Amino acid sequence: MAQRQFGFNTQQLHAGQVPDAATGARAVPIYQTTSFVFKDFAAAKAISSVEEFGFDYTRITNPTNEVLENRIAALEGGSGALAVASGSAATAYSILNITHAGDEVVAAKTLYGGSFNLFVNTLPKHGVTTTLVDPADPDNFARAVIDKTRAIFVETIGNPDITSSISRRSAGSPNATASR
């Protein structure tokens, strides 16, 4: 029998999860555990070394997070998703995943403070530089791209007053790369 294709609205409620086999419960259970039990040492080793899929520690993944990740992937048409605890973590994971020492990021100079700190203070410690540009002129991003540019980063709302506080900080920061 062909797998039924659900519409977007139904997927928002049900994608990435099947009803609980033991109880028939439809709602996603919240697994309030930090660790999981293994059937034997070999299973624990295989899961911990990512040779097999399974749960070993909640900070890495757990069944509740897995449903959220699967649901987001289904809604976005992706092959997978990763749920993290904050936007800062999502930004750091994304940038660290695609950059290496010697690479560069072009970013709007109107970043939220946490993002600004990541790009101007933290990433340079790992050999990744950032060129900050004025997003008022979108062509500034294109002009700043070089061969080593791996990402262009903007935030729809960077900080409450959009430009003044970041402009002052970036102008005085010894680690900020000047706009080209």
TrEMBL record:
It holds the Pfam family Cys_Met_Meta_PP. InterPro entries: Cys/Met-Metab_PyrdxlP-dep_enz, OAc-hSer/O-AcSer_sulfhydrylase, PyrdxlP-dep_Trfase, PyrdxlP-dep_Trfase_major. One of its GO terms (molecular function) is O-acetylhomoserine aminocarboxypropyltransferase activity. One of its GO terms (biological process) is transsulfuration. Belongs to the trans-sulfuration enzymes family. This is O-acetylhomoserine/O-acetylserine sulfhydrylase-like pyridoxal-dependent enzyme. Its cofactor is pyridoxal 5'-phosphate. The keyword Transferase applies. GO terms for cellular component: cytoplasm. Keywords: Pyridoxal phosphate, Transferase. SUPFAM superfamilies: PLP-dependent transferases. It comes from the Bacteria.
